[in-house]
């Protein structure tokens, strides 16, 4: 079994500095329970597992510390995953797949330090900004 783990900042430096996340790069998928065990042991805000598939990547993301057993399609996780695979694959545009139960496809583009994502989305919550 080969697992390369990279520790990254889970969110922006401004609001949540120090919330570590892990990106685990796998040669092959681990059993789901083992991925959940690794996530619990790390105690990071988020742990994303990713494998190379064809010319892109597939991932699963877990965040039990944030009360998210498995994220159906994780945008923040792909902000960490995409730069890794863009460097490895030598591509700035990637079609990424989240292999959760609900799952989804993300159309991602890296421009400098920014990651742009597009795809179908489900409304999670709505609110109003009062200034």
Task: Summarize the structure in words.
- The protein is an alpha+beta fold.
- Helix content is 23%, strand content 40%.
- It is built from 3 helices and 8 strands.
- It has helices spanning 13-16, 32-42, 75-89, and strands spanning 3-9, 20-26, 46-53, 56-63, 68-71, 93-98, 104-111, 114-118.
- Strands 1, 2, 3, 4, 5, 6, 7 and 8 form an 8-stranded mixed sheet that branches.
- The longest helix has 15 residues, at 75-89.
- It is globular.
- Residues 10-17 have low confidence and may be disordered.
Task: Give structural attributes.
40% strand, 131 residues, 3 helices, 8-stranded mixed β-sheet, alpha+beta
Taken from the alpha-carbon principal axes, the silhouette is: globular
Radius of gyration based on Cα positions: 15 Å
- Total helices: the number is 3
Largest sheet: 8 strands, mixed
- Helix amount: 10-25%
Unreliable runs: 10-17
Content of β-strand: 35-45%
What is the chain-wise order of helices and strands? EHEHEEEHEEE
Q: Please identify the structural class as seen in this structure.
A: alpha+beta
Distance between the termini: 52 Å
Overall pLDDT level:
81
DSSP strand tally: 8
